[in-house]
Amino acid sequence: MRFDVIKHHRWWFTLSSLLVIASLVSIFVRGFNFGIDYTGGTIVEVVFNQPVQVAQVREDLKQFNLENAIIQLSGESNETSGKDVIIRTRNLDANESAAVVESLNKNVGQNEVKRVESVGAVIGSEVTEHALINLDIAFLVLAAYISFRFEYRIAFSSLAAIFHDLIMVLGVFSFFQLEIDASFLAAILTVIGYSMNESVVIFDRIRENTHTHKRSDTFADLANASIAQSIHRSCYTLTTVLFACCSLYFFGGDTTKNFALCMIVGFVSGAYSSICVATSIWAIWKSSNKKDMRNAVKAN
Question: Distances from the Cα of 6 to the Cαs of 102, 215, 220, 270, in angstroms?
């Protein structure tokens, strides 16, 4: 028995509306936890007497809530250990820097401080502004392309699903105050590409089915049939990418967790919004337009 996705559109719209509203409230009330790529930070470089591992340093930094700091090995080192360690973290005052060095000296190994200095933000406001402008241009180009290839209703429905996915990701990061760094932009762009691809696959199936469906079929029937034909492909794709992202999240280390989580949330939201939200918007819009045309003909 085929599940009627369009029939339950009120459930999808209600669920999505609640999630979007909750996300927007969190974004405007709690804001975001921007990482050192956006806010600047402090570089602490120490040279240990004996080689140490990055995991040892990161474990010791947890007591200062600095476990997400960027830790790099410099100078003579192998893949896992070295003497020269560079720690790049949020802004620290003189007392905090001294406490970090003292703790490393006590818990990790004897070391000598090579430098402690403040650095500016890697991603400045100008770069961020240019990125947002390019993102807007990309949306306009996508809208124009989909409108040309399909129709403007499909373009609107697809873009609505993408905005839905972006707000979901931003809402999760805002609510849990997860750190947003340079890799977050890459993850967001990946989510946009995935969401758009899912929508295009389904709507391309809808376009093909418009030439073969019965005249008595409604737009809801057409959408449901197209979803049923492409659902297995969507599930296989989602399972594959989630397997990779979950592996990266659970086994990739602290520095990749937020990057992987952004894609996990975005991919799940993208699959849901493309199947349930975007197609429902299109089917209802088309059905409403058809009814309006019939009423106009009867009135004449």
Answer: 62, 19, 6, 17
- Rounded CA-CA distance 189/266 in Å is 10
Report how far apart, in Å, the C-alpha atoms of 103 and of each of 69, 89, 108, 110, 230 are.
15, 16, 8, 10, 56
Separation of alpha carbons 12 and 128, rounded Å: 33
- Quickly tell me which residue has 């280390």 as its tokens: 253
Are the CB atoms for 191 and 262 separated by under 8 Å? yes
Quick check: 226 and 202 in contact, CB under 8 A?
yes
The C-alpha atoms of residue 175 and residue 261 are separated, in whole angstroms, by 14
Ranges of residues in the chain with a pLDDT under 50 are 292-300
Q: Count the helix, strand and coil residues of the chain and give each as a percent rounded to the nearest 5.
A: 70, 15, 15
Q: Tell me which amino acid residue 280 is.
A: S
**Considering the chain, what percentage of its residues have pLDDT values greater than 70?**
91
3-state secondary structure 106-175: HHCCCEEEEEEEEECCCCCHHHHHHHHHHHHHHHHHHHHHHHHHCCHHHHHHHHHHHHHHHHHHHHHHHH
Closest CA to 47 of 20, 16, 13, 86: 86
Q: Which is it for the CA torsion 42, 187, 5, 2, positive or negative?
A: negative
- Residue 287: predicted pLDDT: 84
What is the per-residue pLDDT for 293?
Answer: 38
User: Residue 168 corresponds to which amino acid?
Assistant: M
Closest-CA residue to 143 (of 170, 162, 164) = 162
Q: How many whole angstroms separate alpha carbon 70 and alpha carbon 271?
A: 32
Whole-prediction pTM: 0.81
